[in-house]
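Why do we bother with holo predictions? Because pocket geometry can differ from the apo form. Keep that in mind while you read this record for zinc ion.
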Amino acid sequence: MTHDQRIDVAVTSDDIGVGLADELLKVQAFHDEFDIPVTHFIVPFSLETDLGITTDPKLIDAMKLVEDRGSENQLHAYRHNLFEWGYPEIVSAMDLDEKVCEQFADSRFAIEAYHQKDAMRERLLLAMDEWERATGRRPTGFRSGWGSFSGTLYELLNEQGFRWSSVRFASRTGWKWSKEECESADSYPETINDAVGLAPFRQGDLVEFPILGDFGFHAQRSQANRLIGLFKRQFAICQERNAPCVMVHHFHGLAAGGDNADSGYDIYREIFTWLKETQNVRFVTMDALCDAWKDRAITKPPQRMPQMG
Ligand SMILES: [Zn+2]
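The structure, written out:
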């Protein structure tokens, strides 16, 4: 079977914030080489210092340049705290670190208070206000840190007029395979998590665009071919299902370090070249993706309680 259907590909890049203007420009320049627009998800307040992006004029200038190049900036969380918008995706957080599990067990009541709707609204408004003061406009899209989400988050995004979000993980495989301590993770199955799926779905008036994966997250050079192969096979599933392909990477994950410096850039260079030279694709920003897909988004039935044990 040939795939004549053109696939929309949105490349997204996470975690730029205060003090990271040079990193933003590096990520942007990399995509300019391929003439590929990027959606940069920018964190409005620093987790370490609590400083906001309005205190960093160099970053504001870099964000303007991004938009002049046909890319876009959108809102990434508030301070990128683990439990900010609900519970994080298990694989990215809980499973990453045993201490996180302990922290969760010890802080359950504090986390519960943190997840009250009023508390979450206050956080979202602070994030949006800082964003608006920095850019002169409201963000139209949202991504949380660590894939944390909840029904309350979606209610608030609707209430505040967001058009779309992109917080769910359609597959955990790339994340599992990227983890440096998981060199032997080949056994983790190459599956799409059908509880999330690849199709954009409606949450109220908002459309959620699930993330296919990050194929260059702090990757070791020895893992490169495995991750590129995974991308090609998962892209074929996007073609089979006629779903958009939403990729994510992180400036720190691309750059990695030591013997693996810039390994993520090398992986994405191969992926982009392959897509451009051999596949029928259209590269778009997330906001343009929302324009193209908002009337085609599916409605999912409510999830049922799983049977455990
Ligand atoms: Zn992030």
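The chain has a mean pLDDT of 91.
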